[in-house]
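User: Can you recover a sequence for this backbone? Please restate the input before giving your answer.

Assistant: Of course. Working from this structure:
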């Protein structure tokens, strides 16, 4: 700035060397017709950007596919495990139900035999149980 002369507020010296107008020249020096945004280039840039985005999405989908496959196989394995556990439980419940039914039949048969062999005792036990139940259930009112 020491080499520059003041134009003294005179605008007629603009563009002359040494008149302090070099700053204005430097601002426009980087511009040319090729650097201006072109409407035709905008469309091709958008197409290129869209193509790049599509390629990126395809790469992400391809990378995600093995993860999705692993998650699906893990889910299938979990369902199979739960199904196996439930079928095992169902088998055990069926077995316990059959055992309980057999025990009930055995108890009922034993009770019938006891009533046939000693009817007086059976009647006294039935009266005692009935009286006790009536007193227990009668207190709730």
């Amino acid at each position: 700035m020491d080499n520059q002369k003041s134009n003294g507020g005179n605008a007629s010296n603009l563009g002359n060397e040494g008149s302090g107008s070099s700053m204005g020249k430097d601002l426009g020096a980087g511009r040319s017709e090729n650097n201006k945004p072109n409407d035709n280039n905008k469309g091709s840039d958008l197409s290129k950007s869209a193509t790049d985005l599509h390629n990126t999405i395809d790469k992400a989908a391809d990378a995600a596919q093995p993860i999705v496959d692993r998650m699906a196989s893990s889910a299938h394995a979990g369902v199979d495990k739960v199904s196996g556990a439930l079928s095992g439980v169902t088998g055990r419940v069926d077995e316990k139900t059959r055992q309980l039914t057999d025990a009930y039949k055995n108890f009922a048969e034993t009770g019938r035999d006891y009533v046939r062999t000693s009817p007086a005792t059976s009647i006294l036990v039935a009266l005692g149980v009935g009286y006790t139940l009536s007193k227990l259930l009668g207190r709730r009112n």
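That completes the design. The CA atoms of residues 24 and 55 lie 44 Å apart.
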